[in-house]
Design a protein that fits this description.
Elements: E1 5-6, H1 10-15, H2 17-26, H3 37-50, E2 60-62, E3 65-68, E4 73-76, E5 79-81, E6 86-91, H4 99-114, E7 121-126, E8 131-135, H5 140-154, H6 166-169
Parallel strand pairs: 1-4, 6-7
Antiparallel strand pairs: 2-5, 3-4, 5-6, 7-8
The protein binds iron/sulfur cluster.
Iron/sulfur cluster binds at residues 16, 18-19, 22, 164, 168-169, 172, 174-175, 178, 180-181.
């Protein structure tokens, strides 16, 4: 059986496929070595959910591990509101919603549906502004798009020729450790 892809890496793969390779290389090392301020803030934003302390409401399920055999992905959702049948992904700040973040939410949605949960609504919740941002439920066409994307992720070859994008590198947490660039990151 093929390994399942972690849902949390889908957005990183769009940002730069090579960063997934570096993530796997450095995953055993101290995160302080490469985690820049935005990543640390993002991680802290998830901590109350991961430790299941952000809500005591019985109608909410927090940090539920999810998986989809059909998509070949696994991960953890932030919040599922049973009464509203709503799946919520928390972010510290969302100046802009990237396609990779939408893919993450779609993937969580398909996992939950495959696991037998009813999900009628999906949304992001921006912690810094206390704002909920509803997202349309994915269509069959969206599902196909997501599956093609996951397939390209699984087939990625880090030894293939690659040209780094300096604008991305300067905002990449692996910048100072990456063999594809001479840039330094801005953090
Ligand atoms: S430093 Fe540049 S090439 Fe290296 S992983 Fe980051 S974005 Fe990709």
């Amino acid at each position: 059986m093929e390994d399942n892809i972690s849902i949390s890496t889908l957005n990183d793969f769009i940002f730069c496929p090579y960063s997934i390779y570096l993530h796997n290389v450095y995953m055993e090392t101290d995160e302080g070595l490469y985690h820049a301020a935005p990543q640390t803030k993002g991680k802290l934003a998830h901590e109350p959910v991961d430790s299941k302390t952000s809500s005591n409401r019985k109608e909410e399920i927090l940090a539920l591990p999810v998986m989809s055999e059909q998509l070949g992905v696994m991960g953890k959702i932030d919040v599922y509101r049973k009464k509203e049948k709503q799946l919520i992904e928390r972010k510290y700040q969302l100046k802009q919603i990237y396609q990779g973040q939408i893919y993450q939410l779609w993937a969580q949605y398909f996992c939950m549906v495959e696991m037998g949960y009813e999900v009628d609504k999906i949304a992001f919740y921006e912690i810094s502004t206390n704002k909920t941002i509803p997202i349309s439920l994915p269509t069959a066409e969206n599902k196909h798009e997501l599956m093609c994307f996951i397939q390209s992720f699984k087939e990625y070859d880090p030894s293939a020729p690659f040209v780094a994008n300096p604008n991305k590198c300067r905002h990449c947490i692996y910048c100072n450790l990456c063999d594809k660039t001479e840039d330094n990151n801005v953090y």
